[in-house]
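Supplementary Methods S3. Complex input for the NAP-bound model.
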Amino acid sequence: MYDLIIIGGGPAGLSAGIYGARARLNTLILEKEMAGGQINKTLDVENYPGIPDGHSGMQLAMRMEEQAKAFGAEVKQEMVESVDLKGQVKKIKTNQGEYETLSVIITTGANPKKLGVPGEEEFAGRGVSYCATCDGAFYENADVFVVGGGDSAVEEANFMTKIARKVYLVHRRDELRAAKSLQERVFNNDKIEILWDSVLKEIKGDKLAKEVLIENVKTKEVKSFCSTGDNDGLGIFIYVGYIPITDYLGGQLDLVDGYIKTDGKMQTNLQGVYAAGDIRYEGFKQVVTAVGEGATAAMMAEKYLSDLSR
Ligand code: NAP
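Predicted complex, serialized as structure tokens:
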């Protein structure tokens, strides 16, 4: 019987592991792959406070994992298949066994949705990115295409105007989905041109992405855009939504748009069950916020367990 099981070993899960184990909770972290999650795909984490020279995402994750283990957290590479979270004793079934625990923190994150167009896979990390905050700095003075019309696309298009020469926001309809306040910022930003009713059809290049083909879905006209600025390549940032990883939860937790709903203290609708990081509806999808949420969830779990034992 564990005190705390953390499902997911990205920054939120590892931070929860550090805080849980340091509070002397008998803590297990279950991660299906190598610990780190999406941060493993980030070449250089430049915005993590206290590391001014940046750090490879993978190394940062490895150090977080070491830290959690040093405090006594167990980390197992297992895939969670199903859970039973309703009773006081919670059951977690993985591809290798079954565990029982008194509290659970869910940090399985979300995967960015892919567009599925030719060149998207080929130029991933060489022009194509799903994280402007992580990779935007590589596109100084480049022409950048941000695909999508939701909050993420609109926020990141605005962010990229600080770095890029010009930002094209490519949206498949003639109206944005994003919050009105965010839309206003885009409409008032001279560096952003919105390509309405448009879809990205193909990405071409050599070592770097250098050309995109964009189709107007109404006129069917296809236009080619090639790199022009000082920077050699184009930036293509794809924000067409995320797919939260909740399939194994069996509908036991309240979701909003597929994300787990929590209060400000990471509490879900079930007692002793918390969520942190990208899986949370309210989250910001940043390493630094994921880490803070993981710590908060672990402290809440500790409080819950001490109340239980009274
Ligand atoms: P989203 O709200 O699902 O928006 C995805 C956008 O991509 C939509 O505009 C959609 O077009 C477009 N899209 C989807 N599939 C496409 C495809 N195959 N080809 C072209 N375009 C496609 O995703 P999100 O912006 O990542 O936001 C996710 C959640 O996090 C939302 O609930 C959002 O409110 C929240 N969030 C909040 C903040 C904030 O509060 N600051 C920031 C970021 C995210 P249509 O509009 O035509 O469907």
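Helices lie at 11-22, 57-70, 132-135, 151-160, 180-187, 287-308. The longest helix spans residues 287-308.
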